[in-house]
Protein backbone atom coordinates (compact mmCIF):
# COMPACT_ATOMS: atom_id res chain seq x y z
CA UNK A 1 0.00 0.00 0.00
CA UNK A 2 2.81 2.41 0.90
CA UNK A 3 4.45 1.84 -2.48
CA UNK A 4 1.17 2.53 -4.28
CA UNK A 5 0.78 5.77 -2.36
CA UNK A 6 4.31 6.83 -3.35
CA UNK A 7 3.59 6.00 -6.98
CA UNK A 8 0.34 7.99 -6.85
CA UNK A 9 2.05 11.08 -5.44
CA UNK A 10 4.92 10.70 -7.89
CA UNK A 11 2.45 10.76 -10.80
CA UNK A 12 0.60 13.81 -9.41
CA UNK A 13 3.81 15.73 -8.73
CA UNK A 14 5.33 14.86 -12.11
CA UNK A 15 2.24 15.96 -14.03
CA UNK A 16 1.96 19.21 -12.05
CA UNK A 17 5.65 19.91 -12.61
CA UNK A 18 5.15 19.39 -16.36
CA UNK A 19 2.24 21.87 -16.37
CA UNK A 20 4.20 24.45 -14.37
CA UNK A 21 7.21 24.19 -16.68
CA UNK A 22 4.99 24.69 -19.72
CA UNK A 23 3.69 27.91 -18.18
CA UNK A 24 7.29 29.08 -17.83
CA UNK A 25 7.38 29.65 -21.58
CA UNK A 26 5.29 32.44 -23.02
CA UNK A 27 3.80 32.15 -26.49
CA UNK A 28 5.81 33.73 -29.29
CA UNK A 29 3.45 34.92 -32.01
CA UNK A 30 4.10 36.98 -35.13
CA UNK A 31 7.86 36.64 -34.75
CA UNK A 32 9.96 35.28 -37.59
CA UNK A 33 13.53 33.97 -37.42
CA UNK A 34 16.17 32.55 -39.74
CA UNK A 35 15.96 28.93 -38.60
CA UNK A 36 14.48 26.37 -36.26
CA UNK A 37 17.04 24.34 -34.33
CA UNK A 38 15.44 20.97 -33.58
CA UNK A 39 17.06 18.88 -30.85
CA UNK A 40 17.11 15.09 -31.19
CA UNK A 41 14.79 13.32 -28.75
CA UNK A 42 15.76 9.66 -29.06
CA UNK A 43 15.72 6.56 -31.24
CA UNK A 44 12.83 4.18 -31.66
CA UNK A 45 13.22 0.45 -31.02
CA UNK A 46 14.13 -0.14 -34.67
CA UNK A 47 16.72 2.68 -34.73
CA UNK A 48 14.41 5.20 -36.34
CA UNK A 49 13.32 8.40 -34.63
CA UNK A 50 10.96 8.14 -31.67
CA UNK A 51 7.67 9.94 -31.03
CA UNK A 52 9.35 12.69 -29.02
CA UNK A 53 11.63 13.54 -31.94
CA UNK A 54 8.66 13.50 -34.32
CA UNK A 55 6.81 16.04 -32.18
CA UNK A 56 9.73 18.42 -32.33
CA UNK A 57 10.10 17.97 -36.08
CA UNK A 58 6.38 18.30 -36.77
CA UNK A 59 6.37 21.59 -34.89
CA UNK A 60 9.32 22.87 -36.95
CA UNK A 61 7.57 21.79 -40.16
CA UNK A 62 4.44 23.64 -39.06
CA UNK A 63 6.48 26.81 -38.43
CA UNK A 64 8.10 26.45 -41.85
CA UNK A 65 4.72 26.11 -43.54
CA UNK A 66 3.58 29.30 -41.78
CA UNK A 67 6.69 31.11 -43.13
CA UNK A 68 7.97 31.83 -39.62
CA UNK A 69 11.33 30.20 -40.36
CA UNK A 70 13.49 29.88 -43.49
CA UNK A 71 15.53 26.83 -42.55
CA UNK A 72 15.43 23.78 -40.29
CA UNK A 73 18.58 22.60 -38.52
CA UNK A 74 18.56 19.07 -37.06
CA UNK A 75 21.11 18.31 -34.34
CA UNK A 76 21.99 15.42 -32.07
CA UNK A 77 21.88 11.65 -31.90
CA UNK A 78 25.41 10.91 -33.13
CA UNK A 79 26.26 7.26 -32.38
CA UNK A 80 29.29 6.64 -34.64
CA UNK A 81 30.05 3.23 -33.11
CA UNK A 82 26.69 2.04 -34.49
CA UNK A 83 26.91 4.16 -37.64
CA UNK A 84 23.74 5.91 -36.46
CA UNK A 85 23.20 9.65 -36.81
CA UNK A 86 19.92 10.89 -35.42
CA UNK A 87 20.18 14.32 -37.01
CA UNK A 88 20.41 12.75 -40.47
CA UNK A 89 17.31 10.64 -39.82
CA UNK A 90 15.57 13.83 -38.70
CA UNK A 91 16.60 15.57 -41.91
CA UNK A 92 15.17 12.73 -43.99
CA UNK A 93 11.88 12.96 -42.06
CA UNK A 94 11.60 16.71 -42.69
CA UNK A 95 12.34 16.36 -46.41
CA UNK A 96 9.78 13.55 -46.71
CA UNK A 97 7.21 15.95 -45.24
CA UNK A 98 7.65 18.54 -47.97
CA UNK A 99 10.46 20.87 -46.88
CA UNK A 100 12.93 21.46 -49.76
CA UNK A 101 16.22 19.61 -49.40
CA UNK A 102 18.31 22.80 -49.65
CA UNK A 103 16.51 24.31 -46.66
CA UNK A 104 17.18 21.46 -44.20
CA UNK A 105 20.53 20.97 -42.47
CA UNK A 106 22.02 18.34 -40.16
CA UNK A 107 25.28 17.47 -38.42
CA UNK A 108 27.09 14.29 -37.35
CA UNK A 109 29.04 15.30 -34.22
CA UNK A 110 26.74 16.01 -31.27
CA UNK A 111 25.58 13.31 -28.88
CA UNK A 112 24.09 15.12 -25.85
CA UNK A 113 22.39 18.41 -24.97
CA UNK A 114 25.60 20.39 -24.47
CA UNK A 115 27.22 19.25 -27.71
CA UNK A 116 23.87 19.71 -29.52
CA UNK A 117 23.87 23.37 -28.57
CA UNK A 118 27.56 23.85 -29.34
CA UNK A 119 27.11 22.42 -32.83
CA UNK A 120 23.94 24.48 -33.38
CA UNK A 121 25.82 27.68 -32.53
CA UNK A 122 28.71 26.63 -34.80
CA UNK A 123 26.32 26.08 -37.70
CA UNK A 124 24.52 29.36 -37.12
CA UNK A 125 27.91 31.06 -37.44
CA UNK A 126 28.76 29.07 -40.57
CA UNK A 127 25.53 29.97 -42.35
CA UNK A 128 25.31 33.56 -41.04
CA UNK A 129 22.03 33.02 -39.22
CA UNK A 130 21.39 35.61 -36.56
CA UNK A 131 18.14 34.31 -35.08
CA UNK A 132 16.52 30.95 -34.36
CA UNK A 133 13.84 29.09 -32.46
CA UNK A 134 15.22 26.33 -30.24
CA UNK A 135 12.67 23.53 -30.38
CA UNK A 136 12.35 20.69 -27.90
CA UNK A 137 10.07 19.52 -25.11
CA UNK A 138 9.15 22.02 -22.37
CA UNK A 139 11.09 20.02 -19.75
CA UNK A 140 14.20 19.79 -21.91
CA UNK A 141 14.18 23.51 -22.70
CA UNK A 142 13.70 24.34 -19.03
CA UNK A 143 16.87 22.39 -18.22
CA UNK A 144 18.76 24.10 -21.05
CA UNK A 145 17.79 27.53 -19.72
CA UNK A 146 19.54 26.63 -16.48
CA UNK A 147 22.72 25.01 -17.79
CA UNK A 148 23.63 26.73 -21.06
CA UNK A 149 24.29 30.38 -21.79
CA UNK A 150 23.30 31.42 -25.30
CA UNK A 151 26.01 33.59 -26.93
CA UNK A 152 24.95 37.23 -26.85
CA UNK A 153 25.43 37.70 -30.60
CA UNK A 154 22.55 35.34 -31.40
CA UNK A 155 18.83 35.87 -30.94
CA UNK A 156 17.72 32.38 -29.92
CA UNK A 157 14.25 31.97 -28.47
CA UNK A 158 13.12 28.85 -26.58
CA UNK A 159 10.02 27.40 -28.22
CA UNK A 160 8.54 24.14 -26.87
CA UNK A 161 5.99 22.35 -29.01
CA UNK A 162 2.39 22.76 -27.91
CA UNK A 163 -0.23 20.17 -26.96
CA UNK A 164 -1.74 20.08 -30.46
CA UNK A 165 1.38 18.60 -32.05
CA UNK A 166 1.27 14.94 -33.10
CA UNK A 167 1.94 12.27 -31.99
CA UNK A 168 0.01 12.94 -28.79
CA UNK A 169 2.07 12.75 -25.62
CA UNK A 170 0.75 10.37 -22.97
CA UNK A 171 1.11 10.30 -19.19
CA UNK A 172 3.76 7.60 -19.34
CA UNK A 173 5.97 9.74 -21.56
CA UNK A 174 5.49 12.75 -19.27
CA UNK A 175 6.60 10.66 -16.29
CA UNK A 176 9.67 9.38 -18.12
CA UNK A 177 10.60 12.87 -19.33
CA UNK A 178 10.13 14.39 -15.88
CA UNK A 179 12.41 11.89 -14.15
CA UNK A 180 14.99 11.86 -16.94
CA UNK A 181 15.28 15.65 -17.00
CA UNK A 182 15.53 15.81 -13.22
CA UNK A 183 18.38 13.28 -13.11
CA UNK A 184 20.16 14.89 -16.07
CA UNK A 185 19.93 18.33 -14.45
CA UNK A 186 21.36 17.01 -11.17
CA UNK A 187 24.23 15.31 -13.01
CA UNK A 188 25.17 18.53 -14.79
CA UNK A 189 25.09 20.52 -11.56
CA UNK A 190 27.01 18.19 -9.25
CA UNK A 191 29.52 16.45 -11.52
CA UNK A 192 32.76 18.03 -12.79
CA UNK A 193 32.64 18.65 -16.55
CA UNK A 194 35.27 16.01 -17.30
CA UNK A 195 33.39 13.32 -15.35
CA UNK A 196 30.03 14.31 -16.85
CA UNK A 197 31.44 14.16 -20.38
CA UNK A 198 33.03 10.76 -19.76
CA UNK A 199 29.76 9.31 -18.45
CA UNK A 200 27.72 10.71 -21.33
CA UNK A 201 30.17 9.46 -23.95
CA UNK A 202 30.09 6.00 -22.38
CA UNK A 203 26.26 5.91 -22.25
CA UNK A 204 25.89 7.22 -25.81
CA UNK A 205 28.22 4.74 -27.47
Keywords summarizing the entry:
globular; 205 residues; 5-stranded parallel sheet; alpha/beta; two-stranded antiparallel sheet; 7 strands; single chain; Rossmann fold
Written account of the structure:
With 205 residues, the protein is an alpha/beta fold. The chain has a single domain (2-203), classed as HUPs (Rossmann fold, 3-Layer(aba) Sandwich), CATH 3.40.50. The protein has seven helices and seven strands. The strands form two sheets. Strands 5-2-1-6-7 form a five-stranded parallel sheet, sandwiched between helices. The protein has a two-stranded antiparallel ribbon with strand order 3-4. Strand 6, helix 5 and strand 7 (155-158) form a beta-alpha-beta unit. Helix 5 runs parallel beside helix 6. The radius of gyration is 17 Å and the shape is globular. The mean pLDDT is 91.
Short description:
This protein has helices spanning 2-23, 51-65, 86-96, 113-126, 138-147, 171-190, 193-203, and strands at 35-39, 71-75, 78-79, 84-85, 104-106, 131-135, 155-158.
CATH architecture term: 3-Layer(aba) Sandwich
Strand line-up in the sheet with most strands: 5-2-1-6-7
Shape designation: globular
Kindly report how far apart the N and C termini lie. Answer: 40 Å
CATH superfamily: HUPs
CATH-defined fold name: Rossmann fold
Number of domains: 1
Tell me the strand percentage band: 5-15%
Order of helices and strands: HEHEEEHEHEHEHH
Q: Tell me about the biggest sheet? A: 5 strands, parallel
The number of helical elements comes to 7
Amino acid sequence: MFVLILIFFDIILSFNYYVLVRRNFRLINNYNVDAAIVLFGGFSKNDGINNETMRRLNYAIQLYQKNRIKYILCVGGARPSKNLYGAELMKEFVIQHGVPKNEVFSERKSYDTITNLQEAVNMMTRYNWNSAFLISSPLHLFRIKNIFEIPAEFDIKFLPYDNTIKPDINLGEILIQTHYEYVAFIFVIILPDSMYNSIVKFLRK
